[in-house]
From TrEMBL:
The keyword Cytoplasm does not apply. GO terms for molecular function: sequence-specific DNA binding. Pfam families: AsnC_trans_reg, HTH_24. GO terms for biological process: response to amino acid. The keyword Ubl conjugation does not apply. Keywords: DNA-binding, Transcription, Transcription regulation. GO terms for cellular component: cytosol. PANTHER family: HTH-TYPE TRANSCRIPTIONAL REGULATOR LRPC (PTHR30154:SF53), LEUCINE-RESPONSIVE REGULATORY PROTEIN (PTHR30154). Residues 1-62 form the HTH asnC-type domain. It comes from the Bacteria. This is Lrp/AsnC family transcriptional regulator.
Amino acid sequence: MDKIDKKIIALLQENARYPLKYLAQQVYLSSPAVSARIERLEKSGVITGYHAAVDPITLGYHITAFINLTLDPKQKGEFYPFVTECPNVLECNCVTGMYSIMLKVAFPSTMELDTFIGHLQQYGNTQTQIVFSTAVPPRGIKLPEEEESEKEER
């Protein structure tokens, strides 16, 4: 991956709907050349998809929470299909520490969150933190600057 690929990735993380013509102007290549690079980045798994960022509050999801869960490894086969089917689960991560699973969820109300936690407790103990505010919203990966990449190569 060269500096042009990194610039394309940074631009797409900023706005995945930038027209090819705009991207091409930013990296000083033709639109077909940029399109070919994007296709190569997709095929190699660097770019995994394109998503719209939405505001959960405007959609009626006023409660965002992180739920930690102790999960016996023997229950993973039953738990993963369950949690995958829950549309309110935004993320499910297997983590180190006192708890083995960390979920990020969004719900319209604390009552619905409470009901969901009740279902989770069939798999283990939970600890929940409700989000009051978010100082840093989800964002893209910062790619190393070209100068840093050159230093690493030396």
